[in-house]
Description:
The chain is α/β, with parallel strands linked by helices. It has helices spanning 3-8, 47-59, 84-97, 100-119, 135-142, 170-178, 180-189, 195-200, 213-225, 229-241, 247-261, 265-275; strands at residues 24-28, 31-36, 68-73, 123-128, 131-133, 145-149, 153-155, 192-194, 206-208.
Amino acid sequence: MTDITTSFRRAGVDFSNYQPRHFKWELHGKVATITLNRPERKNPLTLESYAELRDTFRDLVYTDLVKTIVITGAGGNFCSGGDVHEIIGPLVGLQREGDMNGLLAFTRMTGDLVKAMRACPQTIISAIDGICAGAGAIVAMASDLRYGTAASKVAFLFVRVGLAGADMGACNILPRIIGAGRAAELLFTGRAMDGAEAERWGFYNRICAAETLVADAQGLAATLAAGPTFANAMTKSCIHQEWSMGIDDAIEAEAQAQAICMQTRDFERAYMAFVAKQKPVFEGN
């Protein structure tokens, strides 16, 4: 990378030595693993962990060290949602005070986590075991791919606490993954999907054994990290942007995206490897 290119990068997080306060971070090769790490409470999110996750995904835009990300939870569960005592209780306090600005500041902050996940160029894979509920289900939903176990339980349970299923983009994203009718049922009832149903409905890409779940997700992440990561980032961007496009606009957007990818060295490397009857070695540029 040239000095002028480096100067455009955001200074700040050194992901090779990143030490977040509210979750575990491991980097092996170019695969990062985020582990929600409050197993005694089934890994709920707090105001602080929401914000740190949001900021982490925002900063990942500016690094070349990380190419794929796995998100999982410690202790046999993924995430039980927002912490009842540290989030729900204070929100009820704001409601009693009539503090609409405070409530809106919170809901916008949580939505910013999903925005950051969708905007970062790295492929995100959730590895889901045990409870995956509320905000945890949203984090899984906002990921690009999802591996789960048969024993896992996924629940968008906002309705059970008197809230709409319209939370953090669920009414937009979930129907695109599993279909509008199935999404409506889950969001209206708050019921849980087990692993078999989640795979059958297309929420999970694959069912794994609990003992190999994270390793399986990391294996896929490593495979993707060794691939044409610039092109993968372009695919992710197109999937996200084309949700609001008509077909003609989408075809034009993809024509431009593909022409950009054709300017990369990875495109040339793939051709030269084909000519030499070798496997291409991609470098993400």
